[in-house]
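User: Run a structure prediction on this.
Assistant: Running it now.
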Amino acid sequence: MDAILAARAPGFAARALAALLLAAAGLALAEAPLPARQVKVAGHALRVEVAATIEQRMKGLMFREKLGADDGMLFVFDEPGYHAMWMKNTPLPLSVAFVDGAGAILNILDMEPHTLDQHAAAGPAVYAIETNKGWFAKRRIKAGDKVTGLPKPK
């Protein structure tokens, strides 16, 4: 078949193979693990995966079946805003803390799995941190507390 295609359309087989390899590479990149870092939330260590692109932020923790006890996801927004989160395709109950550019927590909300309810920042947020539901409450973390170790927004 390749010989027939190559004879009818010179270079077609090579272009098709190149396109296939590029598509496979793109798929591999899309599924690559997110960079991780440690932040401190009111002095409590939390390992977070960093979702800094629109594609990474859109996927978030969707389809995740488990999350370590001190793990989460840090969403880095392109600019400050009243950003909101939802739980579409997310089977884990989560809490979210919205954080301003100075690292101060604006508000913390609990979110239920598989809901489309909007959970919004109480002020212009630059970051959001999602982790297991109750993680912030268990540590008595509240609005006004500081988060350190945050990357600079781009």
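Residues 34 and 56 are 8 Å apart (CA to CA).
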